[in-house]
């Protein structure tokens, strides 16, 4: 632990320039999070920094602000960035670019991201215009270097974000190749949820006398996260239960094992009246971006995703994570769970467990170090509603979020919406979400309400419900049970 940790320091106290502090204030960021208070001073002083913190702890600004500050006052030559952030996924790259865009502008610096799945020519042109801080996924940067569109010899500071995920995803050979192309004496910042195994190898090889900051407990111990096992007997009960869960209020991420499984579940949910999108490695980048934007702005409040696609997704206000298919191992459980309870928010994590999966799941959650309770559930169960806020979906089919814009299906128009009991609000929601798909992150209000569907839409009413009852249920916190079962710190 560094002696420079200053838990009560302001951003200005930490040594950040006034223009940057002002830009942060304009974005509503007033006080450093612990990981920022702990690392910014050392990073500004030029030290190599090793940061260990859970997802959502504020790592992006922890490495981004000192990088930008240290790059201020000079300008990058064409194709020769001066700062480099390596990340495992395209989504994370875009997210970091968005988070650092305004702060960079305030300091007169240029930030850009280069990722796979997007046109390389445009990225090469962007690099040729000069980029001070480049955010990149390893594969695409490697391609740009091969094409001589990028050269890393001017990189004075490199940050590796989610280094453990880059290692898990098999990127280390590419990462080391890229680091070898940066100047040996350059400053290096490495952030990771875990600092063992392959990450440790990177640290030993590329970092010199690093200060280590571990300011927050791992995801499993976030005090506002609670974990539940929902025993669903078999696959058909599991699907029915998942559909009711998906119809809840708030943002929900459902994890499945395969790409095909993701598409199938999302389609089933839409068929039942729940606006859901699927995200996986088989989707085109623009489709992925649109799906994520519609999820983040709450217009498509259910995201069905595979592990690989979900790496690095950082969206605030996700109040429930559902392991629709239990993960294969405990690390994946913790990573998935880390998509909720971000930045001090509450979060609930449930795993749907069929009879035959019980033994494996029990062993996996034990290994993950999480305290769980287990309940038998069937569609409509009180316990299910108390834990997840589950509801009966409308049955009025909704359009796919990332499909080309088309009129929302009308009730009784000849498709599955015939089964619908009441209005087509969720469908029009999905259509609106599509047209608003690229709404910038910072324009969104923070918190659960983003994920809320409009009160009074027929879509969420249970049979026999008055609108008032229905709303009351929606407003009910996700469980006294939940609170009792919070994970111990
Ligand atoms: P990160 O872990 O970097 O993805 O950050 C998680 C979330 O916390 C993002 O939405 C950030 O905008 C937000 N955030 C980061 N630092 C602060 C801060 N000091 N004050 C308020 N919000 C912050």
Automatic annotation (TrEMBL):
Signal peptide: none annotated. Residues 397-415 have a biased composition (Low complexity). Residues 9-37 form the DEAD-box RNA helicase Q domain. Residues 224-383 form the Helicase C-terminal domain. It is an enzyme of class 3 (hydrolase). Residues 397-489 are annotated as: Disordered. GO terms for molecular function: helicase activity; hydrolase activity. InterPro entries: DEAD/DEAH_box_helicase_dom (IPR011545), DEAD/DEAH_RhlB (IPR044742), DEAD_box_RNA_helicase (IPR050079), Helicase_ATP-bd (IPR014001), Helicase_C-like (IPR001650), P-loop_NTPase (IPR027417), RNA_helicase_DEAD_Q_motif (IPR014014). CDD domains: DEADc, SF2_C_DEAD. A motif (Q motif) lies at residues 9-37. PROSITE patterns: HELICASE_ATP_BIND_1, HELICASE_CTER, Q_MOTIF. Its EC number is 3.6.4.-. Keywords: ATP-binding, Helicase, Hydrolase, Nucleotide-binding. Gene3D superfamilies: P-loop containing nucleotide triphosphate hydrolases. Residues 40-213 form the Helicase ATP-binding domain. Residues 440-451 have a biased composition (Basic and acidic residues). Belongs to the DEAD box helicase family. This is DEAD/DEAH box helicase. It comes from Nocardia rhizosphaerae.
């Amino acid at each position: 632990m560094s002696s420079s940790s200053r838990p009560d320091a302001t951003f200005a106290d930490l040594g950040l320039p006034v223009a940057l502090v002002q830009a942060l204030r304009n974005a509503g960021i007033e006080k450093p999070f612990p990981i920022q208070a702990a690392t910014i001073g050392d990073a500004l002083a030029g030290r190599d920094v090793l940061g260990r913190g859970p997802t959502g702890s504020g790592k992006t600004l922890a490495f981004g602000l000192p990088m930008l500050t240290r790059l201020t006052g000079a300008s990058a030559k064409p194709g020769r960035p001066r700062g480099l952030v390596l990340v495992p996924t395209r989504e994370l790259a875009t997210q970091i670019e968005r988070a650092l865009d305004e702060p960079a502008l305030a300091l007169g610096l240029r930030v850009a991201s280069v990722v796979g799945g997007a046109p390389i020519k445009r990225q090469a042109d962007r690099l040729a215009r000069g980029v001070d801080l480049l955010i990149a996924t390893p594969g695409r940067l490697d391609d740009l270097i091969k094409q001589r569109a990028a050269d890393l010899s001017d990189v004075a500071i490199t940050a590796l974000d989610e280094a453990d995920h880059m290692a898990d995803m098999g990127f280390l050979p590419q990462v080391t190749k890229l680091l070898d192309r940066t100047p040996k004496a350059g400053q290096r910042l490495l952030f990771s949820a875990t600092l063992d195994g392959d990450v440790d190898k990177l640290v030993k090889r590329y970092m010199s006398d690093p200060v280590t900051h571990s300011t927050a407990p791992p995801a499993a111990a976030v005090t506002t996260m609670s974990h539940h096992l929902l025993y669903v007997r078999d696959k058909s009960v599991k699907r029915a239960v998942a559909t009711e869960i998906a119809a809840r209020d708030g943002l929900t991420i459902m994890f499945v094992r395969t790409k095909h499984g993701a598409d199938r579940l999302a389609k089933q949910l839409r068929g039942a009246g729940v606006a859901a999108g699927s995200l996986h490695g088989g989707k085109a980048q623009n489709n992925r971006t649109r799906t994520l934007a519609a999820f983040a702005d709450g217009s498509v409040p259910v995201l069905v995703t595979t592990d690989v696609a979900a790496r690095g997704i950082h969206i605030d206000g996700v109040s429930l994570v559902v392991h629709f298919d239990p993960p294969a191992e405990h690390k994946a459980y913790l990573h998935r769970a880390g998509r909720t309870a971000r930045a001090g928010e509450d979060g609930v994590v449930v795993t749907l467990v069929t009879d035959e999966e019980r033994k494996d799941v029990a062993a996996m959650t034990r290994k993950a170090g999480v305290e769980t309770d287990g309940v038998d559930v069937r569609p409509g169960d009180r316990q299910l509603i108390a834990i997840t806020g589950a509801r009966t979906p409308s049955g009025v089919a909704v359009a796919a979020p990332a499909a080309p814009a088309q009129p929302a299906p009308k009730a009784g128009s000849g498709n599955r919406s015939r089964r619908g009991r009441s209005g087509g609000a969720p469908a029009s929601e999905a259509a609106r979400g599509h047209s608003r798909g690229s709404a910038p992150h910072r324009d969104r209000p923070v918190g659960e309400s983003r994920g809320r569907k409009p009160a009074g839409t027929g879509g969420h009413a249970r049979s026999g419900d008055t609108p008032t009852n229905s709303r009351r249920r929606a407003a009910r916190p996700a469980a006294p049970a939940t609170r009792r079962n919070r994970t111990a710190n």
